[in-house]
Amino acid sequence: MFFGQKIHPLNFDVPETLTLTGDAVELSGPGVRLQIRCADIADGCLRLRFEHAASADLRQHSDAVLPEWRAGQPIAPRREADAVRFDAATGAACLSARQLRLEVAGFNLETVAAGIGACGDALLLNFALCGVDGCYGFGERTRRLNKLGDSADMLTVDVVAVFRHTYARDDYDPTYVAIPFAILKTGERFLGLFFDNPGRAVLDAGKSQPGEFWYQSFGGVTDLYLLAGPTLPEVVRRYAALTGRAPLPPLWALGYHQCRWSYRSATEFRQLVAQFAAADLPVSALWYDIDYMDGFRLFTWSRQAFPDPAALNRELQAAGIRAVAIIDPGVKREPGYAVYDSGRARRAFCQTASGREYVGRVWPGDAVFPDFTLEDARAWWVGELTDFLRQSAVDGVWLDMNDPATGYSRAEDMRFAHGAIPHDRYHNQYAHFMACASRAACDEIDPEGRPFLLTRSACAGTQRYSAVWTGDNASNWKHLRMALPCSLNLGLSGVAFNGPDVGGFMDDVSVELLVRWHQAGCLFPFFRNHASRHSRQQEPWQFGPEALAAIRGAIRTRYRLLPYLYQCFFAHWLTGDPLIRPLLYHYAGPEYVDLDDQYLVGDALLVAPILHGEGLGPDIIRRGVKMQERSILLPPGAWFDMNRGHWLDGGCAVHYAAALDELPLFVRDGAVVPYYAGPLRNSCMDLSAVELHLFCREQAARFDYCLDDRATRRYECGDYGVAGITAEIDGDRLRVEIAESGDYPRETVRFTPVVYGRPELRKLALTVNGRTENRRLHAGQREWLCREWTPLVPDHPMAY
Ligand code: MIG
Fold first, then answer.
1. What pLDDT is stored for residue 416 in this prediction?
2. Ligand 1 mean position to 262 CA, how many Å?
3. Which is more confidently placed, 369 or 747?
4. Is the pLDDT of residue 778 over 80?
5. Is 526:469 a contact under the CB 8 Å cutoff?
6. Exposed (0-12), middle (13-18) or buried (19+): which is 114, by Cβ within 10 Å?
7. Does the beta carbon of 326 lie inside 6 Å of ligand 1?
8. To the nearest 10°, the Cα dihedral for 528, 530, 536, 540?
9. 501 Cα nearest atom in ligand 1
């Protein structure tokens, strides 16, 4: 089968009769015997299970859903004339031989005529898209945010390898990630459809047949989870509860990352440290791409280039910089190479149907692949990876080529469980189980700490183990533009911790593109500059002082806002809300349905990056400075413009011109933005003192600030507190209330209010927790983007 091909609906057999057998409903006819069961999973979550009764393997091989939700409460079908109903508190499913009707939280969905069918082990569900005006999710995708009129092939692939001449386009499909999750929108009601089947599947939202949503799985069990809204956040939160949320990352992982394929020697790493310092740029991690290895042998180092990796990495750590190393799954097939020998002895590698070790051809040449679905193979991997990380003092793990890329060999011959399970059952989950085992290795090394892992391929649920980057993009404006909807949809699909290669991976970046990409991405959850070995160097200082200054503004802004980003991660862990969000996450109206060239970070910041340059879009000259112009939709309410330092009225679209060093960034009236005002020294940050930037024009500002040790995983057991912050301007007085609650020592963070209020309030008296402070607020200087702003700051540091 080629990419993009589907099974023609006319090739599906349609059931003709319905029978009831215990908890199951059987739909049958010539060529089709489907068993359907329904279960109540949780409040707002209902599951329909579709099994082919004649299939040889009736197990659900997916690891997407958290174990605690897998069983569910079976719902007994109730007969109703020629149909049956499954009724639950969340909603109902009504099934006849030829039709399925769903009613969940005010959202109705039904299959079209001949909309349920089977073609061998393939399953078809075709729904009518009556009144549906938006579709979101789909995991990591190209093209636009709204997937209505689009389709997605759920198959994980090494994109550049399979689209060798077309990788630079903005419409390739499939991608590295397969998450069969769709969120339908009708007016202001949303419904989530999660088709839990780890095998290849197609989701087509009206591309092949306008007005119809097609789901086709090519084999295996499909669990359709219906996730109630009615709002978009409710759907997203329910999906995240079902498949898991990202654990809190270490603080350093939230900083700026510098990568290239490859920095080739210890000398080069030391030079980078010096270059970052000379450029006055903080950096949190430097990355080892494949050339650190000895002949691409996993868990080895090229000793000429890196004589003492552990010493080098400790040296980096002392400078506040962490080291992340790439780990590919392919193990060089070389008798005598210890990793191969020990894996072979443990029978840890994937096999062909007849029981041979499956051989692919990737970086090390002929290579075998760990079967991460086997507990014993995972245990072997944990041992090998643990030793490697320990001995080399590496801090983070970068999982690549796990789509899995097998190079010369066709992947279908790679089978699992010693050849017993066909490739398709675990193809899309290969990276998932690799990430699971790799995280276990990190846990082994530091059971109390927080690991950092990044993976290229992923499926539903992988967010529990690893962050995801969106793979090999290209240095062109289309790919910068596409990075927004791609990361936004990935976030709506449970993978909150994600981001693109900043600057673009393939091809040569230009000055403007590099600057604009840093600005667009500096508030993404994951922020890493990375380029291919064939591309020109694209470190921030490669293009002269003007570009460097602009990039510095973006990078430093990220570090200033790191406490806010950290709070967004905390909120994600608590609720499932993504970090970066399309505007329709919080604002209702038709103008937001397709809006994907601007985004929100949390609910307070609005980023509308410049996504064009070099004559490709409107540019103007103002006061002798070249600027790029774009239109920005500001939702209702007042927004503080961080470039110009004044309030704008929302509820309209504005034309905005931004010089090369400007990122259009706005803060909502009523927001509290935690800000780090201390010295910037790579990833060394003392967050025991944080400024609370209070944006109070008309609105009182509120925020729940989570307090924890920011380093261990004790928060998972409830060891964290919440500082409930409110701020209000009342006449000539600023009243701030900070009330701490929860299971954490009090007053471990010193908060200092900084006010962005109405300009007429030059001097405010300050009341904190009912106590009048004799400090007054004066105009002060704060660094935002490339500017210094003058909000009202206390005359000297304060505690409350
Ligand atoms: O065949 O390790 O997506 O980030 O630099 C290419 C080399 C293998 C693909 C990854 C890319 C990485 C590159 N890898």
1. 98
2. 10
3. 369
4. no
5. yes
6. middle
7. yes
8. 20
9. 4
* Rounded average pLDDT over 221-236: 98
- pLDDT at residue 162 is higher than 80: yes
Q: What is the pLDDT of residues 269-303, one digit of tens each?
A: 999 999 999 999 999 999 999 999 999 999 999 99
Q: Find the 4 Cα to ligand 1 centroid distance in Å.
A: 25
Is the beta carbon of 289 within 6 A of some atom in ligand 1? yes
Whether 471 lines ligand 1, by a CB cut-off of 6 Å, is yes
Please give the pLDDT value at position 119: 96
pLDDT, position 1: 60
**Ligand 1 contacts CB of residue 53 (under 6 A):** no
Ligand 1 pocket residue status of 290, Cβ below 6 Å = yes
Q: How far is the CA of 400 from the centre of ligand 1 (A)?
A: 7
Sign of the C-alpha dihedral, residues 715, 718, 719, 723? Answer: positive
**Amino acid at site 40:** D
> CA-CA distance, 196 to 194, in Å (whole number)?
6
In the reported structure, the alpha carbon of residue 254 is separated from the centroid of ligand 1 by a whole-number distance in angstroms of 22
Q: Give, for 629, the enclosing helix (H) or strand (E).
A: strand 625-634
User: What is the CA(164)–ligand 1 centre distance, in A?
Assistant: 14
Distance 764 CA to ligand 1 centre (A): 55
pTM above 0.85, yes or no: yes
583: CB partners within 8 A, 6+ apart = 592, 595, 598, 599, 600, 606, 633, 635
Residue 289 to residue 306: CA distance in whole angstroms: 13
Hey, whose CA ends up nearest to atom 2 of ligand 1? 290
Residue 799 confidence (pLDDT):
47
C-alpha of residue 401 to centroid of ligand 1, in Å? 7
Please tell me the distance from the alpha carbon of residue 638 to that of residue 171, in angstroms, as a whole number: 37
Q: Which amino acid is at 356?
A: R
Structure token pair of residue 706: 């989570």
What are 476-519's pLDDT values in tens digits? 999 999 999 999 999 999 999 999 999 999 999 999 999 999 99
Question: Which of 167, 401, 535 has most ligand 1 atoms within 8 Å of CB, for mutation?
Answer: 401
- pLDDT for residue 9: 92
Please say if the pLDDT value at position 363 is more than 60: yes
